[in-house]
Amino acid sequence: MADSGSEEIAVIGNTDLTPSESENNLKNTMVEKGTSLLKMMEISVAEAEKRTGKNAVNMQETYTVYLIETRPVDAASEGTNPVPDSLWRRYSEFELLRNYLLVTYPFSVVPPLPEKRAEFVWHKLSADNMDPDFVERRRVGLENFLLRVASHPDLSSDKIFYSFLTEENGWKETVFETGFQAKADSRLKALNATFRVKNPDKRFAEMKHYGDELQSVISQLLRVRARAADRLYGVYKVHGNYGRVFSEWSAIEKEMGDGLQSAGHHMDAYAASVDDILEEEEHYADQLKEYLFYADALRAVCRKHELTQYELEMAAQDLTSKKQQREELATGTIRTFSLKGMTSKLFGQETPEQREAKVKMLETQIEEGEELVKERNTECEEFVKSAWVDIERFKEQKDHDLREALISYAIMQISMCKKGIQVWNNAKECFSKM
Amino acid sequence: MSGFVVDSTVSSGNSSVAIPTDISGQILDLDEDDDLEVFSKDTTVTDGSSFNASMQTSPASMINQYKFEEDAEDTKDIFVTVDNPESHVTAIETYITYRVVTKTTRSEFDSSEFEVRRRYQDFLWLKGRLEEAHPTLIVHPLPEKFVVKGMVERFNEDFIETRRRALHRFLNKIAEHPIFSSSEDFKIFLTAAPGELTSYKKQGPGFLSRMGETVKAVAAAVRGVRNRPQEFTEMQEYVEAFSQKISSLDKVTQRIVREQKEYLEELKECGPTYALWSQSEEELAEPLKDVAGCVDRCCKETEEQVKNLNDNLIPVLHEYALCTDTLKAVLRRRDNIQADFEAKTEALATKKADRDTESKVLSLAWDSLVGRSPEEVKQQKQQKLKGEIKEMRDDLDKAEDRLEWANNALKSDWTRWQKDMRTDLRSAFVDTAERNVNYYEKCLAVWESFLHSQRTDAEGNGNVDFS
After folding, report:
1. What is the pTM of this model?
2. Cβ of A238 and B255 within 8 Å?
3. What is the value of ipTM here, to two decimals?
4. Cβ atoms within 10 A of the Cβ of B109, count?
5. Which residues form a coiled coil (chain B) (predicted)?
C-alpha cells in the first residue's frame, strides 16, 4: 500500500483509467488482508431527505433517502479538497447490503443497522419514523454502520460493498446477480440444527449463551433507562411552575419582589436544561442499542457453526450406517433390523447377483460419503477458525466501545450535576436576597 | 423593624372612621376595669399580678412592648421544645401526648425548668384562648387534625413526627410573640400539672357572656362594615393573592416530591441491571460493577433529597398556607369590631334624634290612659332618654377603643407577621437550594471518582486517550 503512492488517488478519482481497470486496481490493492477501505477513503452519510414516489404496488409513499459521500483520504492532505462523490440510498438498500454480507460472510460478526422503528422511547421522544430527531439519529447510525463495515478486515474488501458506496444505478441488480439469496440458510434448517447438533464447539455454545444474556440485559437496561428519563423529565419540568408562581408572587411583594423574580428565572432555566441532558443521553442509548443488535449478529455466527457441525455430524452418521450395512451384507448377519432383511427371511434369500449389486452400490456410496465427510470436516474446521478470529476481534471491539460508552455516560452525569450546581447556587443567591 | 408609631398610623388621613387623631390622652384615662374588659375579657386571671400587667396593653403601652421586642431580639429568655411522643390507651380512646420542656429565666415563672405532657387538644385549647383574647392578633397555625383516613393512620410514625415538629414551631412562635408570650394561658400551658390544666380550662368565661359576644358579633357581621380603611382593604387583597401563591407553591412542591419519588423507583432498577450485566462480562465486569455502584449511591442521595423536601420545605409552605386562613379570620374579626362600632354610632345618633324630636301625640294619649300628667311624663321621658344616651355613649366609647386597639394591634402584628413570613420563607428556600447544591455535589463526586478509576485503569493498561 505504501508503495502505491499516487496510484491510489488515481484509483478513485482519476478518469484516465477505464472503469474496469480502476476496479481491478482497487481489488488488487485491497486483497491484502487487514487493509481496510477506511484507510483509503473517507465515508460519511451527510444528509437525509424526504422523497415521495410510487412503490411496488403502485401506491404513493413517502420515504427518506440518505446521502452517502466518499472522498479519497489523500485529497485533503494535498490541499485540493475536491467535491466528494455522492449518491442517495434508502434504508431498504442498506438492509439489502447487510443481508448480502450476512450470507456471504457467515463467519463474520456483521455490524448491525440502526433500528428500523424507534423502540425504547420515552414519552417525549417520537416513535414516528418521519420525526426529524429520529431521522437524524438514524443518519448517524447508518454512517456508523458503513464505517464499521469499511474497517472490518474481511467485509471492507467486498466488491458489492464498494459499489454500494460508489455506484448509484444498477447496484440492486448486481447484488441479486450474486445469487446470495439462494445461499441463505432457511430458518427451519438452522433451528433444526440447533436442537439436534451433538457436539458443538464449547466456545461457540458459550458465545451463544453470552449473546442471549447480552441481549436480555441490554434490553432491560434500555427499558429502565427510558422510564427513568421520562420521570426525570417530569421532575425538571415541574420546576418551571416555580418560575411562574414566583413571578406572580413577586408582583404582590415589595422587598421580596426582586429576589423572587430572579429566582424564578433560574427555575425556568433549570426546567429547560433537561432537554439537552436527555438528548445527550439518547446518544448513550444508541450506543447500547448497537450492541443489542450486535448480540444478534454474534448469535447468528454461533448458529451457523451449529449448522456446519450438524451437517458434518449428519454426513458422518450416514457414512457409519452405510459402512454397517456393507458389513452386514458381507457377513450375512443381520445386526440391525431392516424391512429388507425381514422380507428376505420370510420370502427367501436374495440371489448372489442381487447381493453383489447391492454391495457395489454401497461401496460407491461409502466412497462418496467419505469425500463428503472430509469436505464438511474441512468446512467446519475452517469456519471455526475464521469465526473464532472474528469473534475475538469483536470481543475486543465490544469491550473497548462499551467501556467508552460507560465513560461518556459518566461524563454526561457529571455535566448534568455541574449544571444543577450552577442553577441552584444562583437560585440560592437570589433567595437570600428575598 | 417591627415597632410601629401610633401617631402616624392613627392620624393617617385615609381613615374615615371617626377616630380622634390624638387618642393617647383618652386611652390612658380609662380605668382598670374597662381595660380588663376590653383586652382580657376572657381571662379569669384578674389578680393584677405583675405578670399580668403587660396584658393590660393600651396602644400606648404597646409601643413600649414593641420597642422592647426590638431590643429583646438577641436576648431570648425562654426556650420551648416539643418532643418524645407517647401513645396513651384508655378504655374510651387512644391518643398521643408530647413532652413540652420549658427553660426560662423570666421572673414570672416559679422555676427555671418545666416539663409537662400535652396532647393535641391542649394545643387547640391554647390557640383558641389566644385568639379569643386577641381577636386581631395573628396566631401561628396548628397542624391540621387528621380528618380523612381514620384511626390507624393517626398513629403512623411519619404523621406523628410531622405533627410534633409543627407543634414545636407553634409553641416557639408563641414564645417569640411580644404579646402572646406573656399570656397567662401560655404560662399555664407550659407549667401546669395535668389536673391543674383541666380545672383551669373549665374556668372559662361564662357561657352566657360568650353567647352575648357571639350574638353581637353575628349581628355586626350581618350588617357588614361600611367604611373600611383603605389599608385594611389592601391587606385583604394581599392576603387573597398571597393565599393563592402560597397554596400554588405548596402544590408545586408536592408534585415535585411525587415525581422525584417515581424517578427514584425507576433509578433503583438501573444499578442492579448493570450489576447483572457485569456477571456476563470479563473485561467489562469491573467498570459495569462500578457504574452499578455509582447509580446506587446516586439513588441514596436522591432519596435523601426527597426526604429533605418533605421534612423542611413542605411543612413551612403548608403552615403559611394555613396562615392565610388565620389572616382572613383576623381581618374578618377586625371588620366586625368596626361594624359594631359603626352600628353603635348610628344607634346613638338615632337616639339623640329621638330625644330631639319626640312624638308628643302618641305618648300623651298613652300616658293619659295610664293616668300621668303630661309634664311628669315629659320629665320621665327626658330622664330615661338621657340615661339611655349616656349608656350608649359609654358603650360607643368602649367600642371605639376596642376598634382603635384592634386596628393598632393588627397593624403592628401585621408588620411582625410579614417580617416573620419573609424570614421563614427566605430561609426555607435558601435551605432547599443549598440542599439541592449538596445533592448535585455528592452525585458529581460519585461520577468523578468513577472516571478517575477508569483513567488510572486505562493508563495502567496503556489504553485509550481520554480527550
Report:
1. 0.77
2. yes
3. 0.83
4. 18
5. 375-409
